Structures are given as structure tokens and as C-alpha cells.
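Open question from group meeting: does this chain pack into something compact, or does most of it stay loose? Before anyone orders reagents, we agreed to write out a predicted structure and look at it together. Recording both the input and the output here so the notebook holds the full record.
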Amino acid sequence: MYWVRSLFFITPLFFLLSLTSYSDEYNSEYPELAGEATGYNSAESTGYNSEEAIEFKLRSTVDRSLSDEVANTGLSSIAAGVVGNVFGLSWTGLGTLLKSGGVSNAVFANFTASAIGTGVLLGMGSILARTYLKTPSDLLFRPLFWVVYKFNQVEDFIFYEEYPTALDQKHKAFLQPVSDRLTSVAERVFDIPASYWEIDLMSAGGPNAFSVGGYKIGIYRSIFTVAKNEAGMACILGHEMGHVLARHSGQGMTDFLFFNKKALASILFTNAIAHNQEHQADEIGLYLMALAGYDPSECSHVWERFTSAAGDVRGIIRIFLESHPTNASRMVALQKLGSQLKGYYTRKPGALGLGMEYEL
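C-alpha cells returned:
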């Protein structure tokens, strides 16, 4: 009977995939209705040559549909759920299986089928949660995000000397116009008041930046030399804003509930989900900086400078130990999208180019 149980668990997966194909078929068969649902006509969903088209792509990248989420993280999610359930360190039936007598035993077969079926359901649940529950989860856990952010601020204050006033003012003068332009784009496209964003300078660590839910972003001062110019800073800040806009903090909390975080065997697949979210944030950031008037081709050069400054971890190590993709893979994706946005950017009135260059 274990195969019947497996069929019961796996059938919903095929239903989920059928929803994806139905959605794609519906949009291709009735493009005018798909356009009405998003507020754009179908022509604006293709190409990169108009403000409306870029804003459409920005919105759709931030708010992925179910079919988009399945396409981007579906297999990784199902695999993470199954592998985490079957081979995870918290596999409660391990003792039973060791005593069951092997693969041919009914106890072994039933337990394995149940673990696989449960893993499939957990993977499917994570996909649905990332699509439909990311905003409620982000709102629910904002007090926690606030605590995490304040902890980083307090830690920075305790461990690091204050920057000289002149250098602090220089950093703020360099960052302010960039943050003003990007938050203005977010306000226009998503109706998020610019005043909601809290963007702070911190002294800790190497060249880096981070974000948490609740529109909070920390920029480490050591990243200014990597940014080099306003367009470079727009790339970095836009990426962090991308995490916030896509509600990745909220998605991370729902994933924590669905995936067995003690299941070290599933790291390969949970990291694949995290890598995809990093690429998603990169894409959002590129749209933001292009709409703000900065040259989108500069973003790939930022990652070249990151690699020159700190090197790049080997791809095989990234897969098993890192939640971020390699610099090289990000550069390739950014170069491709940057070249696609070039046509829009070169015709944009009042384009800023690289903006002001940062000087020590």
C-alpha cells in the first residue's frame, strides 16, 4: 500500500504544475485580458525600450506569479522538501529503519514513501507561501526584523570608532542623491513613500550591505571604493531595495517553517533557492537604477571590482556552503540585462550616466 500513499502525496504536485501551464496558456491565448489584469497592454510586457515596459518588468519581477515561482524555484523546493525529510539529521524513523531489515521490508517501504510524500507537500507549501504569504509573513515578523537591524546598529556603535566628521559628511553626500532617486522610483512605481526607507551607514565588516524587512538597509562604509561612482552605488543600493521589495525576509521565514533546517543534505537545494533570490534582487536593482537615470551597464563592473577586492569563492563551494551565487554568474546575468536596457537608457531624457565619482 505504500505506493498508493506515495501517489496520494505526489498527485497535488502535478496539479500545481498543471496550474502553471494553464496560466501560461491563458496568457498566450488571451493576451489582452492578461494585460488588463496588470494595467498594461501586452505590447508593454515585451521589449526594453520604454518607461512603461521597464516598470512592467519591475513589477512582475518583484511580484512573481505562481507560474514564475514554480519555474524559478519549483524543482529546488520539491527536492529540498524530499531530501530534507528522507535524509535529514532529524529523521525520527532512522532507528526503526535500521531495525526493519532492509529495503524489501514493509516498514522501510511505508516509512520512506511517507517521508517522500511529506517532503513533496512541504516543497509545494513553500512555493505557495513564497507566492502568496510573503507579505503577511513580512508584516508579522517586522518586530523581529527591527530587533535584528537595531542589534547591528548597536554592535556597530560599540565595536567601532566614529568616523571623522568630514569623512562621514562626504559619505552621506555621496549616498544621499542616489538613495533619493531610487526611493523616488519605488514611490512612483509601488506607492511606497520615500520616507519609509531607513538607509544607514555602518563601519563594520568588509565591502558589503544588507537589508531586512521593514524597509531597512545598512551600507558598510568600506563599500564606497567598490561602488566607485553613483551608478555603482545605485547598483548596490538597488539590489538591497530589491530584497525588501520582493519580501525576501518574509519568504525566508516561511521557508524556515517548511524546510527542515537541520537537514544538511538539503543545503544544495535550499541554497539554490537563495541564489535565485539574489539574482532576482539583482534584476530588480538594475531596473530601479535604469529608471532612476543611471547607466545599467555599470552594475557588472561593480562585481568585477568586488572580485578584484575580495576574490570569488569557487562555484562548488557556493553550492554547498554559500547562500549567494558566484560573482562570475552575477556578472554574466547583469551584463546581459544591462545590454538589453541600454536602448531605453540611451534615449532617456536627463540620463545621469555614472554620476559623481567617489574620491577618497
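Observations to bring back to the group:
DSSP finds 16 helices and three strands in the chain.
The beta strands are 198-202, 209-212, 216-220.
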